[in-house]
Amino acid sequence: MTFELFSDGGEAGVLALAPGARILPAWAQSGAESLLAAVATVAACAPFRQMRTPGGRAMAVAMTNCGPLGWISDEAGYRYGATDPLTGRPWPAMPGVLSALAEGAARAAGYPGFVPDACLVNRYLPGVGLSRHQDRDERDLAAPIVSVSLGLPAIFLFGGLRRADSCRRYRLGHGDVVVWGGPSRLCFHGVAPLAPGSHPLLGPERINLTFRRAG
Ligand code: SIN
Ligand code: FE2
Asked: Which of 44, 81, 169, 189 is the most buried (most CB within 10 A)?
């Protein structure tokens, strides 16, 4: 696993992936139990489900959302919407503990004033990964992405602005936070299939929270 040591005068312990992209190791670790309790309240209203790709296949990652807008994929394409297609109700409100964490991590990574209006919750099991993609469904590309990892570790693949650019591999463990924006906002990224394992709080699962300014 290659970790690039922060080299542009930033805070000790912060790792630079690319210009504008940082890993904040263990940033969310001490608050992880309250984050997971908040995720459980969200999932009680808007259950995890495997959305369909525009091509009609079920995605391996199970997803739900909270906040004013939620990311949706189905036969009609990728988009954000205010209503959960499964329940017909608005997505659950974003718990304050989640938005506060995202705002603080964004600030620490050099993006003060980030106010997310969408939190996508991704659930991975061993063997499940996410193919390389850009996050480009958001209206406001000036805002960063804040991505929180909980539970089983994963290998995060972070590349460049072109699909063909090679990716570097970073191990993301429980409580690690990645923030990318500015010149790296549209960098390709993905997640390698999870290795088998069991985490003390989550068992055989990884939960990823991805905060965005979508609308
Ligand atoms: C994503 O790109 O939406 C998720 C990334 C992750 O699970 O770490
Ligand atoms: Fe993404």
From this structure: 189
Tell me how many degrees the CA angle 194-177-20 measures, rounded to the nearest 5: 115
Cα 26 vs. chain centroid, distance in angstroms?
15
Of the candidates 119, 59, 47, the residue with the CA atom closest to the CA atom of residue 89: 47
Q: Per-10-residue mean pLDDT for the chain, 215 residues long?
A: 39 81 96 97 98 95 98 96 98 98 97 97 98 93 97 97 94 97 96 98 98 96
Q: Is 46 within the bounds of a domain?
A: yes
Nearest CA to ligand 1 atom 2: 190
Give ligand 1 pocket residues (Cβ under 6 A).
Answer: 122, 130, 147, 149, 156, 189, 191, 208, 210
Structural domains in the chain (count): 1
Q: How far is the CA of 8 from the centre of ligand 1 (A)?
A: 26
Distance 119 CA to ligand 2 centre (A): 12
Q: How far apart are CA 127 and CA 149, in angstroms?
A: 17
Distance in angstroms (rounded) separating the CA atoms of residues 4 and 177: 15
**CATH number, domain containing residue 165:** 2.60.120.590
Q: Which residue has the tokens 């936070």?
A: 177
Where are the alpha helices (H) located in the chain, listed in sequence order? 32-45, 96-108
Report the amino acid identity of residue 196: P
